[in-house]
Amino acid sequence: MIIKWSDKYKVGFSVIDKQHKKLFEIARKAKASLDRDNDDKYEEVHDILDELVLYATVHFATEEKLMKQIAYHDYEKHRREHEQFLEKIEDIVQDANLDVDDATIREILQFIVEWIIDHICGKDKHMATAIKNHR
């Protein structure tokens, strides 16, 4: 699994792009911990996933504020996607506490990275275009 930021994920707003980059950094940090061969790696990964949920919450609030400012037509749908993602990650992390192994954690990271990429390339780029057109 490759977790790497690319300029193709830029939406054109520095604050949002910077936050998206940070989400990738946190996911990459989780993978690096998982790749280490030590007894504490699952606890480290769990802590990093908690960090990702907290940071994603901050990031989503930033996006939602921007959408509200322009009365974005897809605001409610976009907000629900954010909410569902956070709920899913919290459920996955909680379930993973019961059955933790490398494969499970890799699946979790794969889901997170794929969701973030899909969301950025789809919903966030549409949102950014609407904000730019509004200004």
Biggest β-sheet: count, sense, barrel? none
Low-confidence parts lasting 5 or more residues at pLDDT below 50? none
Helix content bin: over 70%
Number of strands: 0
Mean pLDDT: 89
The H/E string reads HHHH
Q: What is the number of helices?
A: 4
The N- to C-terminal Cα distance equals 38 Å
Helices and strands, with pairings:
Layout: H1 14-35, H2 41-69, H3 75-96, H4 102-134
Helix pairs in contact: 1-2, 1-4, 2-3, 2-4, 3-4
What does this protein look like?
This protein is an all-alpha fold. The protein is built from four helices and no strands. The N and C termini lie far apart (38 Å). The model has no long low-confidence stretch (mean pLDDT 89).
Record keyword descriptors for this entry.
mainly alpha; elongated; 135 residues
Quick structural summary:
79% of the residues lie in helices and 0% in strands.
